[in-house]
## 1
Amino acid sequence: MSVHLDSQPQVIVVFLLFGLLTALSNYFSIRRFDQYPPARIFPRVSVLIPARNEAGNIEACVRSLLEQDYPDFEVIVLDDHSEDETPLILNRLARTSQRLRVLDGRPLPAGWLGKHWACHQLAQAATGELLLFTDADTRHAPDMLRDSVSALLAERADLVTAFPREDAVTWGEKLIIPVIGFGIFSFLPVTLVRWLRWAGLSVTIGQFMLFRRAAFDAIGGYDAVRNHLVDDVMLGRRIIQHGFTWRLMDGTRHVSCRMYRSFWEAVDGFTKNTFAFFDYRLSLFVIAWAWMAVVFLAPPFVVAAHAMNLPLESYPYPLACLAVIESLAMWGLAYDRFRVPLYLVFFYPVSFGLFVLIAFRSLVYTLLGQSTWKGRELAPPVWKW
């Protein structure tokens, strides 16, 4: 018995080779905060946290920030109309530290997304020369500020963004969340972005964005991205487009985060912003995800079919094996650097298959105006062909 599969295995192998080279380049070129010498002068830092219904996270986050080994900083948290005990927890913490300020969010104006409006208010209240935006579900090592500021100054950067260690507990989290790290490592050539200033291939991670205040203001801050779902990515691209210096670093030893706490929470979270990452370009989105589905799902399907004595005439088995080996190497490099358990590499077809479904769910939900986040409806965007 034979099954026909229309594919181009040679092209897939070459494509994966370029992905593997990109992953290798990123693996050795992306530096950690603690690989830089300590700064001689430490500018004042404002650590800014928007919080909406974060009662389960906010205390651990704020305490980890208040314990920073850094001479001059403030922590400002904005309660964005929480409906849980977030404001009570924040007010209690504020009584224990003069470094902590708690703001009550103003009403959401038309044309703004909720988190972006909260971050805008935080930036207006900040007094630091440097602004660190981070999320309420993050945790920070005591030397995070000292090492990250040293890295920013050594690189003469205007924005340092970093990927944290993403903690995953349930199997749903383990299968879905690491795909983001894989995508960064395999398809975003960080060195070329730096050298050639390719803003469109850059990624900025909202869980850690350390700006020079002057650069942040010069690009328009959150006012310039007030209604774009992937505010972090767009802010980073504006930094590059305006001639400022962007750096992506490894923050896994300094920052940790449990982004989502269940399978469906992860699905909903990525549904919200996957289409937005492509700047709502419909044709690019569909073509990219269809091609990637073929690249990462066809070869393991061929190998599995061969194991079940179902040869695929149009796809040579040796090329399928080579493609699977290349894929395993790419996923392994990303997972090792992002500190993801390496045994999950062998589940990459399941992980990627799930993410393809999430991507097209993101497309449908966004175009139909059914996207929501934290109890707020997200307005349909203006999409492009």
## 2
Amino acid sequence: MTTVQTGIQPISTSRRVKDRIVHVLVYLAFAIAVIPLVSVLWLVIKNGMHRFDLEFLTHSMRNIGARDAGGGAYHAIIGTLEQVSLASLIAVPIGLLTAVYLVEYGSGGRLARSISFFVDVMTGVPSVVSGLFVLAFWILALGMPFSGFAGAMALSILMMPVVVRSAEEMLRLVPNDLREASYALGVPKWRTIVKVVLPTAFTGIVTGVMLAVARVAGETAPLLLTVFFTDSINNDPFNGPQMGLPLYVFDQAGRPTDTAIDRAWTGALTLILIVMLLNLVARLIAWWRSPAKRGS
């Protein structure tokens, strides 16, 4: 009677111990990374709930002194939404088209390598440098006024490399079989990109865009140099100073009164909630436009 060798060897005790140790180290590293995040969120929520009310969300700081009770961040909320929206309108199309060129047309050419190099350089540029660039060129050289649009241009410089890199990775994950099948049917390349490649990578592209939005929504240095301060509501981002939530938090935190500090904490909480809401909306859009959802 012959014995059949299955080739499956029992796991030794030492390997089990090593596996258990690695699992413990991974969970420990995750806990170490999460603890600061949870502590910051808890601190912001705990201190920000004191002034998180309807008055804070619907009133500005016009005629409100540092020691006066009341006041709100309505003017800063409007400014942040308009500035981030304008920055997205500038950065997302440029970043997406750049990623499409690098993946679909670049093919490792000299121009593609140069673009990729400059994208890497832009990724490491400090945020204050983008503000200085817009200040020097748009405001000082061209004589344009401080405005929300100037701040949006500074924020768009910070958004572009994030959009390019995230969209590039998502486009590279699209299987080449889909492209080849489209080409075999006689579909032009540009139409294949628009109808096949981009819809397939849409979910990942939206996620990358939201990462870029979250990256710039809390930036203060570019706004300090391009938007300036105001306590009044300015719905026109192209004319005059316009407050933003990061500027609002910076301004209120620098005032030595408890009422101003409470407003600063609540402004930070409002900014976090806005970013979370935008991410939720983006997730819903990505889920609704996903190929699996459309195919069902």
## 3
Amino acid sequence: MGILGRLPHAACLAAAVASLAACGYGSPQPPLASVNPSDSAASWMSPAAAAKSLLYVSDAQAFDVYVYSFPDLKLTGKLTGFKRPEGECSDAKGDVWITDNQNEQILGYHHGGTRAVAVLNDPLGYPAGCAIDPHSGDLAVTNLFDFSGNGGVLIYKKAAGTPRPYTNPSQYFYYLDGYDNKGDLYVSGKTSSGSYMLSVLARGKDSMSTVSITGAKIFVPGTVQWTGSSLLLGDQRCGFAKTSCLYEAAVSGTSARITHRVPLTGSCDVVQVAFEKGRIAGGDYWSCGGAGHNSTDVWAYPRGGRPTKAVAGIHAPVGAAISDAPDL
């Protein structure tokens, strides 16, 4: 499976610390090699980027973040200097946050910017995903796992300062997260035995709870995204097959009922997608063998199916975020 998807068992921890790319479809995979291990190229951005909607996609093998105009996917820029960029999130102002897993940092960029305007340190472990609370502006960062063992969620109040940690005792790995319209935070992950699970940190609460899921079985955690009416949950190994899909879930308290499946036809491993009304976008990491290739894709939503647009040139896509220009 993909970068985050290759951690189904606690036994993979030692390899995962180095590469986050071990234990795939039942057999160990070699660590990801850097495409440009001595790459010192500076970040760049097209002058026209500031006025466009942009799609940011992290590449955990090249250690860069590719920036495309959206939805036409013209390469518009590249952010460099990461050790292992993974999950991403954006806010209503167009600011984008990127987790740098092996640097143990979370970096914030203005829309179309080439330099980080904020750098937050992760004091406990390896950041994987992030989400912005639309009500408070708090930044919720998932630690895939911590230095001492099981992972958790770190909440940076107003996206600054020292974070407050939260955990669910039943959850070991913490993958990606997303807020709903009420300010409740949902987090995809796994138990120590490798089973999928979803946790929620309800707004104003001090502890996380397990969410029961009915209507479908999810195998490998991925996207958690609020669409305005339902929670979008990704499965990197849909139906336990070598393909990815998304599920729409109606949530109420600690219950989630799957109501619709969004197929990503022809995909291998889509870790995270970004949602915009009528579309979803992200990277497809091709680790399935055969004639496929790594790509950055746009799909119709909620229909799904084959991409309406796809471009090659990325190596190991993981996270995705859409950033709209402040005046759009």
## 4
Amino acid sequence: MIVADVTGSIKRFRRTPWRFQATFSTPLRKLGDFSSTILSSLGDVREGILVIDSVVFEPRHLIDLLQRNGLAGEVARDRSITAVGPRELGELLEAALGDWVDFALVPSPKPFVLYADHDEFTTFFANTKSNLNGVVQPLAARGFREVVGFAREF
């Protein structure tokens, strides 16, 4: 894992136009299954960059994860954490979803990106309907609840 500060990255993320989106309730009691379903929809994911938008309460899961990986530092706005490989990315996504933080996650390759907030909503953005369906259908098939009619606007 790599931690860096990238000033303005959330601002750029918010300005990026996306043609399609879908939002799911973040299931706090099933974060491992939720995260693994998201990652499995990515296929051969190489890495992912998680960028913090805001921190509501102390992000204990993220802090613990960083410390276990020999990294120190504050978790704050515009701080990015790069995870390499599916295992690291799964740990990072699960930790962030379990904390009271708002963040964006950009995987590579990038069929979609996601934005999760401390209100327990995870929104997936894509430029094609098929890329969006690539994550929405597996999540729905596993019983995760889509928030129909919700449109995230920045």
